[in-house]
Structures are given as structure tokens and as C-alpha cells.
Amino acid sequence: MRAKPQPELIACHDCGAGVSFSAATCPHCGSQEPSGPHVFSQQEIRRHRIEQRNDRTLALAVVGCAAAGAFYGMVMSSSQIGAVLAGCGYGFVGLMIGVGVGFVINMTRHL
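and the corresponding C-alpha cells:
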């Protein structure tokens, strides 16, 4: 008769008791993270920094192009209502262009 394999036990991060690696909580102390807090590897940290920089670049490109488009629309219009409408319209066009510009910058940065 073959013995059943025992589940792999780890020491609970909070109380030190043996807990199954796949357990969601420690049955002894009720800890929500019996294996301890997640420790990020250097590769995960580097990837997270790159994603943050890409997000900032995209946001700046979108806001900058939208502001430039809105400014252009307001300056080029002759009436107040026309300036508001043109500013909104050109701002939206700038917003759409900014998304593409930010995407291209983020994609070509690592080439």
C-alpha cells in the first residue's frame, strides 16, 4: 500500500506553526498571509519602474497635445462661443493625437 503524499508545510510568517503552502489563512492564528508578504524580485521592480515611466510619458503626451489643441482652437477663433467650441474640438483632436504620440514614444524608446 502506497502512502499518501503529505502536503508541503511551511512555517506561518506570524505564529511559526506548520501551514500548508496552498492555505489561504493560517488555521492556528488566522493570518491572511501565512507565507509572509510578497517580496518583489529585482526584475519585477525594474519592470514596474518601466511601466510607471511609460504611463507618465503617455499621460504627458495626451495632456500636452490636448492643451496645445485647445489653445490653438481658442486663439484661432473670432468669437467667444466659437473659441469655446473650437477649443473643445481641437482639444479632442489633440487628445487623440496625444494617445498615438505617447504610444509611439513608449514603443520606440527601447529600440
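(Above: one complete record from the training split.) The chain has two helices and two strands.
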